[in-house]
Amino acid sequence: MDVGSPMLRETLLRLADTGVVVPDVEIIRLDAGTRPEAFRPLFETGAALGARFVNAIAFDPEPARAGDNAAALAGLAAQHGLRLSLEAIPYSTVRNLDEALAVLGSCTGGLIIDPLQRSGDGLPRVRVLDPDRVSYLQLCDAPRAAPSGLTRPARLPRNQAGADDDLAIEARAARLVPGEGELPLLDLTAMLPADLPVSAEVPNLALREELGTPEFLHRIRRGIDRVLRRAGSPPGNDRRASMSDVPAGTAGPS
Predict the structure, then answer these.
(1) d(CA 57, CA 86)
(2) Higher-confidence position of 236 and 16
(3) What backbone torsions phi and psi does residue 162 show, to the nearest 5 degrees?
(4) Residue 29: strand pairing partners
(5) What pLDDT, on a 0 to 100 scale, did the predictor assign at position 117?
(6) β partners of residue 55
(7) N or C: which end of the chain has fewer CB within 10 A?
(8) Residue 85: pLDDT band by 50, 70, 90 thresholds?
(9) Domain parsing of the chain, residue ranges
(10) Which among 210, 205, 198, 201 has a CA at the least distance from the CA of 237?
């Protein structure tokens, strides 16, 4: 998908034909071997696609190094009209919003809000966030308690590496459709800015196999619409709901 490639040209034609927009590109992994300049092609492609954000996660055990790399990446991304957006993940080295803010420091990067975090980021913490620090909201659902004893899938969506624990398996292959679990999605959605982009991140291998891809996608969309409507922000008015990372073919939804 590099700039100038046939795949990028074909993708841009399909976007124009369908009216689909690209909100974000991904993913940057912050770790000991991260070299910010190596991601310039990703930023160039993201700009060509009209994206606004580039998603990052952190697995670097040294917060200072992760912060330096985040600042450098945020600067490079901004040159291409993109905002580096850091997601806190319970099985990463940035497990909650405060740790994500510490890594971002004073750089221009933003936060991705994901209700699956279950890592101390309760509603009171989200409520006092600076709205300018939030890039977008990823919606999914889950039981309120962390999972235990999940079946290890034979494959993971998007050819990801094997997941080693229940939190990783749930996040990559067993999230629930918004509104079908126990997470406080209505309260969370209602307290965030009304014009904040909303993304679906609902990888669920078993449900997709049961329903088939088209009905699976429709079910996710209906679930998001219900959540936004009940939260007081009807779809089509202020909020922009989008399906994120739900590719066709053999790769699972994410």
Answers:
(1) 6
(2) 16
(3) -60, 140
(4) 57
(5) 79
(6) 85
(7) N
(8) very high
(9) 1-111, 114-246
(10) 198
Tokens at 37, concatenated: 């300049």
Orientation angle between helical segments 97-104 and 63-79, nearest 10 degrees: 70
Neighbours of 254 (CB within 10 A): 21
Which whole number is the average pLDDT over 68-79? Answer: 98
Query: Amino acid letter at 203?
Result: P
pLDDT digits (tens, 9 = 90+) for 210-228: 999 999 999 999 999 999 9
Residues 6+ apart with CB under 8 A from 218: none
Which of 64, 71, 70 lies closest to 29 in space, CA to CA? 70
Which is nearest to 73 in space by CA: 111, 33, 38? 38
Q: For the sheet containing 24-30, what is the strand order?
A: 24-30, 53-58, 83-87, 110-113, 134-139, 197-200, 240-243
Q: What is the pTM of this model?
A: 0.85
Q: Are strands 83-87 and 197-200 parallel, antiparallel or unpaired?
A: unpaired
Q: Can you name the CATH fold of 1-111? A: TIM Barrel (3.20.20)
Query: What is the rounded CA–CA span in Å between residue 68 and residue 252?
Result: 33
- Give percent of the chain with pLDDT exceeding 90: 73
Terminal-to-terminal C-alpha distance of the chain: 19
The answer to whether the beta carbons of residues 194 and 239 sit under 8 Å apart is yes
Using an 8 Å Cβ cutoff, are 238 and 190 in contact? no
Using CA of residue 120, residue 125, residue 127, residue 133, what is the dihedral sign? negative
Q: Look up residue 145 and give its DSSP letter.
A: S
Q: 136: part of which helix (H) or strand (E)? A: strand 134-139
